[in-house]
Amino acid sequence: MADKRILLESGTNEVEILEFYLGGQSFGVNVLKIQAIEQFDPERVTQIRLTHPSIVGTLVFREKCITLIDLRKEMEAEGNADGHTANITDTTPDQALVLVMEFNNLKTAFVVDGVDRIHRASWESINSLSAFLNTPDSKFTGSFQIEDREILIVDMEKIVSEILPGWQQKFAIPENESSPYKANRATKTIFLAEDSALIREGVRTELARCNYVDLQTFPNGESCQEEINRLKKKARSEGGQVTDHVDLLISDIEMPAMDGLALCRWIKDDPILQQLPVVMFSSLINEQIARKCDEVKADAYITKPQFAELLVLLDHHTNVQDEAEVMAPA
Fold first, then answer.
1. Which of 156, 183, 201, 227 has its Cα between 20 and 30 A from that of 74?
2. Is the whole-model pTM more than 0.90?
């Protein structure tokens, strides 16, 4: 595996993609999600009845039981939302591999036909899905060409959220969320840079529940950068600040065209923009990535899908708490 100390230098806008395959189709996943690649061993699997059809059972991994998902069956059952047709075929147990991944603070294992190699690429070379295809139903966040084949980047978070929906729901903001800051929240404009349509809709729903109703979303860091640049020029012509038009940016890390670390570095290196608060909201937050967030001067970072904790960060960095105290009657 390549040396990530070089690749993951903060804000380089690079990524390492592990190429794996299901039948005749290549797929990809960020190497940072991979904990281990192992031969599939049926003796380590405990089958579970009355579960999702794509769940094989539980797998013993480092003395703990984790969910094992048949990724071939999951892709074949649902089809490909972006119009691609994967040639998925059965693989005998002695040929199959297991990819153990960790994201959203959760370990999950996936059965695949095999792996090819790791590709180092710039996020600029990752193609976003078209607006028509990038829907909450899509299992992919983008693709890139390598040699004579197209590698589809799999939205692993979406797959897990569909198969294990109860796990994500426990992080939701309570339906009856009540706060003295609610009125002030409605006055704030929040930007969200996120390539997953599922997560964009999830953030919109959760924030609207607590009255952060002015949310503008962008499918990648590059489109968000373009809008912030436009606001920068507008603020300059008006003699104001960018923060007159946007109060805070929530950004994913993994995104086509420009990733979140590169976007944050661009903002914080600009004397005009650096006052804009940036909160990294990513499935990849761990000790190593937290250091990278600090290096690009992110104001805060938190793991998806911890929406309740995200709300606390928004209240703090948009100053709704201070404003509520000023407006409170003596």
1. 201
2. no
